[in-house]
Amino acid sequence: xxxxxxxxxxxxxxxxxxxxxxxxxxxxxxxxxxxFGPRQAFVxxxxxxxxxxxxLDVLSRQxxxxxxxxIGLPKGARVALMMPNILQYPICLFGLLRxxxxxxxxxPLYTPRELxxxxxxxxxEAIIVLEQFAHTVESVIAKTSVKxxxxxxxxxxxxxxxxxxxxxxVRNVKKxxxxxxxxxxVEFRTMLSRGAGAMFTxxxxxxxxxxFLQYTxxxxxxxxxxxxxxxxxxxxxxxxxxxxxxFLDRNELLVTVTAIPLxxxxxxxxxxxxxxxxxxxxxxxxxxxxxxxxxxxxxxxFVSLPAVNTLFNAxxxxxxxxxxxxxxxxxxxxxxxxxxxxxxxRWQTITNSPLCEGYGLTECSPSVTLNxxxxxEFSGSIGLPxxxxxxxxxxxxxNEVGLGEPGELCVRGPQVMKGYWNRPQETxxxxxxxxxxxxxxxxxxxxxxxxxxxxxxxxxxxxxGFNVFPNEIxxxxxxxxxxxxxxxxxxxxxxxxxxxxxxAVKKNPALTAEDLIAxxxxxxxxxxxxxxIEFLDELPKSNVGKILRRELRDRA
Length: 556
Description:
CATH architecture of the largest domain: 3-Layer(aba) Sandwich
CATH superfamily of the largest domain: ANL, N-terminal domain
CATH class of the largest domain: Alpha Beta
Radius of gyration: 23 Å
Number of helices: 17
Distance between the termini: 39 Å
Number of strands: 26
Strand content: 15-25%
Shape: globular
C-alpha cells in the first residue's frame, strides 16, 4: 500500500526514524540519568513517595548486582515480575534489564493455573512478587523452574519514619496478606542491601537481545510469549517520541499518570517513552477506586494520561472529575480496546481536550498507529501509522483491498516482535511471506490515510450471511443515556446462524430491554438490531480494563 498517510502527518513529524543509533534499554536509562538526574522519575500516587532518576539509577543497580553477583544468574535468564503499579516495579524492571536478563511480566491477579503456565512456558528462574500474591507463587513453584523468590511489601519504599509510625492504609493492607510459605525467599530490602555490597559488572547488551517475554492476553486462546528485543521496544519509543516531541516543551515539567498496569504492554511502552523525555510518572495501583484515582489526577497537573475506554468512562461519570484543572493536558491516549464516541465526546466537553485514540498490540511493542496530536476533536479512527511503520489491509487470500474496503490489518516495522517464544508454528501462522504481522483485526483506510478498526476477525458475528461487527452496535448502545457499559457477542442460532446478544450495565435503573431495542431500530439496519439483551451488575474485564467478550460468549 502506498504510504498515503504521510500527507496527513503533523508538521515536524518525520516519516522515518534512525535505527542505527538504537542500543539497549540499559543505555537508554543511563542517558536519562545523566540528563535528568535530580528530577522525579516515579511517584506513588497512593503515598506521595517519589524517587528521582539518580535514585532509580542507584536502586536498580543494586537489583542488578544482587541477581548478577549474589545469586549468580547468567545473562539471558528469564525473571518474572508480579506486582501492580508500585515503585518497586520500575526499580526491579530496570535493574533486571541492565544486567541483561529477560523480563517476563506477570499479572498479579493470575490464578495458579495461569501463573503456572506462564512460569513454565517462559522457563523463569526467579520471580519478584508483591507479598499479597506470594501464596499463588507458593501453590505452583514446585512445578516450575523458579529457584529464587524475592518478596516485597507495600511499605518497602516508604520512608522509615512513616513505616514506624504506621500508615492506616499500610496497616490494613498488611492484614490482608494471605499466609504463605516460601522457604529461602528474600525480602526486597534485603535484596537491595546485599546488592549494595556486591559487584555489578556492566554486560554487553545488543539491540537484538531479548528484553521481554511479553505474554498475550490469552483472550482468544492460550497465552503466548511475544519475544520483544531491546530494538523492538526502543524503536517503538523512538517512534512515539517523534510523534509527540513537536507538541511538548522540554523545559516544562512533564507529568504522566499511569493507571494501566505496568505489566501490560501499553503502560510499559508509555513508561519507557516518558523516561526519554525526563518526565515524572505518577503510578496508580488501583484505578478501580475511582474516587482515589480522581484525587491523584487533581493533585498532579498531568500532560499525558494513557488509559482504556472503561477507565475514561468511569472518570467522566464521577462528579469530582469535572472539577480538575485540565490546562496542562496535551493528550489523553486511548488504547487497548476501541474508544467509543459517546465517551470521547463527554471527555472533550469536560476537559476541553480531545481523546486521542491509537492502536497497538503486544506483538508490536505495542504501538502501530496514533492520531495526530494537533487534531481538535475525536476522529473516530485509530489514526495514522507511526514513522517507519507500514500497514497493508488484506483479504483472506492475502490480496490487498481498496480504499474503504475492510481487510485484515497487517503490520511491518522495527517494532514487530521477533516471534513467539518456543512456538515456531504459531509464529509462522501470523507472519506473511513478505514480512508482515497479521493482527487478526479488520480495518479500513480512507483517502487521507486514516485507519479505522471495524472489529476483531474472531469477534465478527455472521447473521443470515451478513457481517455484523460488535463495535458498531456497542457504540450505538452507548449513545443511550441509560447505559453505563455494554458488550455485544454472537451466539449460535438455528434460524440465522448467529444471533446478536447484548450484555449491558444500567446507568438508569428504569432502563428496559425494550428501550434499548427501540433505540437500536432508530440507528441500525434490521439485521444489526439485537433481540436478546441481558442486564448485569458489571461486565467481566481483564485487569487492564478490557471487556472480556470470550467470557460473555461462553455465558451466552
